[in-house]
Specification:
- The chain is mainly β and 539 residues long.
- The chain is built from 6 helices and 34 strands.
- Strands 12, 13, 14, 15, 17, 19, 20 and 22 form an 8-stranded mixed beta sheet that branches. Strands 26-25-27-32-29-30 form a 6-stranded mixed beta sheet, with no helix packed on it.
- The structure holds CU-O-CU linkage (C2O) and copper (II) ion (2 copies).
- One copper (II) ion (CU) binds next to loops.
- One copper (II) ion binds next to strand 8.
């Protein structure tokens, strides 16, 4: 996964030209979509000309009520993604994409009424050959899921619980869980990748007194960074590639040419010379970001998917897969007047016909003078306590294979969990209150971020196996020793990256309201094409 330092240095030095315009001509035929390649040619976008937008905040807890109802409308609108582009047609919540950030207080429930006011035709090409997205169902359907939330099945945004334009849906979120960065997004059967691409996502933050006591940067200094990669045409419109067969336009994965942060291409952010908390969310369909600050400076990771880590971790680089969240503290103290860049140097940064587009994400501009001189304060040495779950406590083990079925031309045409399709009978049926170990055996050449709904889990270990032998004999023979969870993955997780040719083992305390949920790959192209399975939480 890790790039050699040479590669990285080269990439970073390529960034000196940050002010120059970037040419997206000749994207190349990797995705065999001539139309989008043509439209793309000629798009030149300058990085760091737009200030970072911060989504509007909905926060009822300030009013001291123990529960609150919001109404959010899903609709189509135009929004500017870059200074030099005409407004882009997007789908979002209450007129913005990403949608407003909802802030909830632990113990105070939230009810949300989602009103679907979207058009009846999709803006992107629906693949009607995918299960659940056939010509027999309405083209535009939505169901909203709170990713990372401990919620009852009826409010979980089950893929088949969709509503059509003109309809409303209510979800109830008890918020009985530790402070954490969650997010809401569409989960409709067979079209989640397209609905997400159009913009249907937003942040959902749970706070609690335990976290408040730590005195971490808050208010204006607690800033979400929602990452989404996109391909834009010369008129600034969203382009989504299609496969070679017009009847099955599904593509196995999506990698965009531009990164949006909070809905802007390559923005900049003016910061005070002090500490900030950034809540990173990778809301991309398929891109794994591997990021660092340039010039190099440490990021202090304080939280992962399920909330605070035990202690802050000094990270030179961070990796964040689709669906994951990661909270960091960055200290700009003493950096007055300087600029710093958040850079992605992950695999395949931005496809552009062979030419590598530098991995800009965001530029920080540290202000020279600030009114008050905030006192430099240390990040608390202890943040929280995360009990380490023991293998011996597990009452059940499940070995689950991650599989890709190859079609013509060595192109995957379907992805599966344990060889089963979504509509096949339920096989994962953990008992409520029990602990299970799930081991994901990745037989494919891709890394898959696997996500379970309604629970949080811990990573036990990852271990290499002989994938060649597996292909020949279907035997799983380990080749390396088990690698325990690295510090950044020792907290509570709900999405875990499963590298190719490795067995990734998680331990899951299943508890919640009995009912039917799902687990799936969070590469949305995979999720939409069968890499999703229901699971039954048995009472
Ligand atoms: Cu973020 Cu089932 O999804
Ligand atoms: Cu989820
Ligand atoms: Cu996948």
């Amino acid at each position: 996964m890790r790039h050699s330092s040479t590669t990285r240095r080269q990439l970073l030095s390529g960034l000196v030209t940050a002010g120059t315009a970037i040419c997206l001509a000749s994207r190349g035929g990797a995705q065999s979509d001539e139309t989008s390649a043509n439209i793309l040619s000629g798009v030149r976008l300058e990085p760091f000309v737009d200030p970072l937008p911060v989504p509007r905040v909905l926060n009822a807890s300030a009013r001291g009520s123990r529960s609150h109802i919001y109404k959010l409308t899903l609709s189509e609108f135009r929004q500017k993604l870059h200074r030099d582009l005409p407004p882009t047609l997007l789908w979002g919540f209450d007129g913005s994409a990403p949608g407003p950030t909802i802030i909830a207080e632990r113990g105070c429930a939230t009810t949300i009424e989602w009103a679907n006011q979207l058009p009846v035709r999709h803006r992107l090409l629906v693949d009607h050959s995918l299960d659940g997205a056939g010509a027999d169902v309405p083209e535009v359907r939505t169901t909203i899921h709170l990713h990372g939330g401990h919620v009852a099945a009826r409010s979980d945004g089950y893929p088949e619980d969709w509503i059509t334009p003109g309809c409303r849906q209510q979800t109830f979120y008890p918020n009985q869980q530790a402070a954490a960065t969650l997010w809401y997004h569409d989960h409709a059967m067979g079209i989640t990748r397209l609905n997400a691409m159009m913009g249907l996502a937003g942040l959902y933050i749970i706070r609690d007194p335990e976290e408040e006591r730590l005195g971490l940067p808050s208010g204006d200094f607690d800033v979400p960074l929602i990452l989404q990669d996109r391909i834009l045409d010369a008129r600034g419109q969203i382009v989504y590639p299609v496969g070679p067969d017009p009847n099955t336009p599904w593509v196995p994965e999506f990698f965009g040419t531009h990164v949006l942060v909070n809905g802007r291409v390559w923005p900049y952010m003016e910061v005070e010379p002090r500490q900030y908390r950034f809540r990173l969310l990778n809301a991309s369909n398929g891109r794994v970001f591997q990021m660092a600050l340039a010039p190099e400076q440490a990021l202090f990771q304080i939280a992962s998917d399920g909330g605070l880590l035990c202690e802050p971790l000094v990270r030179k680089e961070i990796r964040i897969a689709p669906g994951e969240r990661l909270d960091v503290i960055v200290d700009f103290t003493g950096r007055q007047g300087r600029r710093m860049m958040l850079v992605n140097y992950g695999r395949a940064p931005y496809p552009s016909g062979g030419a590598l587009i530098p991995g800009h994400v965001l530029e920080f501009r540290v202000k020279r003078s600030s009114g008050a001189d905030p006192q430099a304060r240390d990040i608390p040495a202890t943040l929280s306590s995360v009990p380490q779950l023991k293998e011996a406590e597990a009452v059940n083990h499940r070995r689950l294979l991650l599989v890709e079925i190859m079609g013509a031309g060595g192109r995957p045409h379907r992805t599966l969990l344990d060889g089963r399709r979504f509509m096949d009978p339920i096989t994962e049926d953990p008992k409520n209150g029990s602990m299970e170990i799930w081991e994901f055996v990745n037989t494919t050449g891709d890394a898959h971020p696997i996500h379970l709904h309604t629970v949080h889990f811990q990573l036990l270990d990852r271990r290499a196996f002989d994938s060649r032998r597996y292909r020949l004999t279907s035997e799983i023979v380990m080749t390396g020793s088990a690698m325990g969870a690295p510090p950044e993955e020792q907290g509570w997780k709900d999405t875990i990256l499963c590298p190719p040719a490795q067995v990734t083992r998680i331990i899951v305390p299943f508890s919640g309201e009995p009912g039917r949920y799902v687990w799936h790959c969070h590469m949305l192209e995979h999720e939409d094409n069968e890499m999703m399975r229901p699971f039954l939480l048995r009472s």
